Each structure stands twice: as structure tokens, then as C-alpha cells.
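User: Second chain of the day. Same drill as before.
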Amino acid sequence: MWSARRCDVGTAYTGAVDYVVELQHDVDIAGLDYAALERLAAHALAIENVVRPSELSVVLTSDAAVRDLNRTYRAVDAATDVLSFSQTEGEEFAVPGGETPHLGDVIISIETAQRQADEHSLALQDEVGHLLVHGVLHLLGYDHEDAADEVLMRAHEDAILGTHAHHH
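Assistant: Same format as last time:
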């Protein structure tokens, strides 16, 4: 069963919405602070100076669902921790007047996140937060295909996550 939340993160002074983060999950994750994840996603967008307003979708799901997506869209028949599907790559997509532009979707496998958290003695919240930021950075065009790109991406992760940053 899918559950969805919508978090409009705005400016306290003007009341204007800066970022809309829609978080969906089809697995129940005890103790995971969804509101904190939504705020973290909005924080990442703000730190990266993403145009305001913008919308982002986050999906927390199973290894099987991520594997299906990975096989369908990347021709890789395996689960992974996070996938990002940008709506800003390729041909420009027209956004109707007054509509908030959608940046894309970040898909996180909770099962893989839990395994990685256990392997590195991390709280699941911290691992999912790291994967969320990692996925957002991919949406924004960052990558880690070579050493220089990896250093740059990690620096951005560190800037966003601060003391919660970790790499494995």
C-alpha cells in the first residue's frame, strides 16, 4: 500500500513556497522521520541554489521495485541503493504558467539502505538522508564517473549534510 506526503517548504517571512517535496513509500519504516527527510531535500535544493519554486518527488521502496526500474531504464538487472530520474534533462519540457517545475524523482531502496546502514554502523535515518542528498545531486547533474567528479560530488554532499556526512 502506498502512502504519500506533500511538504511545502517556504520562506517564513513571505509565506511563499520555495520547494515542494512529495515523499511516497510502499514499505512501512518504523522510526524513520519523513518530515526530516523532506526538510533535508529542501535544504539540499536551497544549498544548490535551485530555482524557486521547484518540486521534487522522493520514493522509498523495495529492492524488487528498484531492480525493476534499474532493469527497465538502465539495462542493469540488479537492485541499487538510489536511482534518480531527472525531468530537466533532454528536450526542454514546457511548464504551464503558474505551475511549479518538477525536477524529477529520487527512488531509494529501503532494504539496501538498511543493509548499508548495518554494514557501516549507521542509523537508517542517516543512511537514507545521505542517499536522498546523493540522488538530488544526481538530478542536478553531478556524477561520480571519474575521480575528479567524485571529489566534487562528495564535497557537495558534505556541504549539505554537514556533520551527518559519511561515505562508503
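The chain has one domain: 3-164.

User: Great, on to the next one.
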